Amino acid sequence: AVFSMLSEYFFTFRNMMNLLMYSSVLGICACGFTLVVLAGSLDLSANTLSALAAVYTARVLQVTGQWWLGLIVGVAIGVVGGCINGFLITKVRINPLITTLGTMSIFKGIAFLENNGVTIPVYDTAFKTMGQGYLFGSIPNIVLIWLAVVIVIFVMLKYTRFGREVYSVGGNAQASYLSGISVKATRFKIYLTCSTCAGIAGVMYASLNGSGAPGANENIVLESVSAIILGGAALAGGRGTVIGSVLGVLVLGTITNGLTLLNVNSF
Q1: How far apart are CA 182 and CA 189, in angstroms?
Q2: How far is CA 55 from the centre of its chain?
């Protein structure tokens, strides 16, 4: 309401689409991160894992010229990262914060080593269409991809056994274990899902910005947590929804978009 009064361009269809478009990468990552918060934990490695996915997606595109192969590699990096985090946390029993703090540094190092810290450009038009293209000339493709991720996570949390287990483990892990729930398996799946979403976010970043940058999505973990908490989730776990997380992302996106339209200094 405030921004629409201060700027005549704010409450227009084109600007609303821009708001959604540039909130999508954070939104995709926040969807997966919601599961981690619901379980009463954190994943500090999501930002560098998404950057790693962006870098190697761009590298594969540069070498092979096959957009679909770059897409697969980027998402696969997210899956592998989730397996590593899940294994260390559930099998080796390292504290989640210590685990993801360590893997955060490892993923960041690999991302910077790939091209000596230099951003890798993406020229493939078909690949960039995912992030920069529009359906019917007005609806950004990346927003539809974000919507698809939201629907998958929503169905997963609301209508599957795994979703009920996520809430249960976040509410009381010991009671969940005594009730017959495999807490370790649930936590493994949670970190796998979160990292997969981080990988998808990295691929979408490369498509939207036309490059794979080792410093991409640097603040996405803090922004995801902020959005999820704004959406009504509890940091202690057991309470929250992916729809609430989407609303939280839109709150942050609205603030950024409105300040940009008002020409407020970015610093």
Answers
A1: 11
A2: 16
At 168, list the tokens.
């249960």
pLDDT one-digit tens code per residue, 202-239: 999 999 999 889 988 788 899 999 999 999 998 888 88
Number of Cβ atoms within 10 Å of the Cβ of 102: 15
What is the token pair recorded at 37? Answer: 């918060």
Question: Which residues lie across from 135 on neighbouring strands?
Answer: 139
Q: How far apart are CA 79 and CA 73, in angstroms?
A: 10
Q: What is the pLDDT of residues 104-130, one digit of tens each?
A: 999 999 999 988 888 999 888 989 999
State how far the Cα of 13 lies from the Cα of 64, in Å rounded to an integer. 38
Core vs surface per residue 106-122: b (16+ CB within 10 A) or e:
ebbebbbebbeeebbeb
Both tokens of 181, joined, read 């729930």
End-to-end distance of the chain based on CA atoms, in angstroms?
24
Question: How far apart, in whole angstroms, are the C-alpha atoms of residue 88 and residue 100?
Answer: 9
For residue 214, how many other CB atoms are within 10 A of its CB? 24
Query: What residues are paired with 211 via a beta bridge?
Result: 121
Question: For the whole model, what pTM was predicted?
Answer: 0.92
Count of other CB atoms within 10 angstroms of residue 161: 9
Alpha-carbon distance of 194 to 101, in angstroms, equals: 15
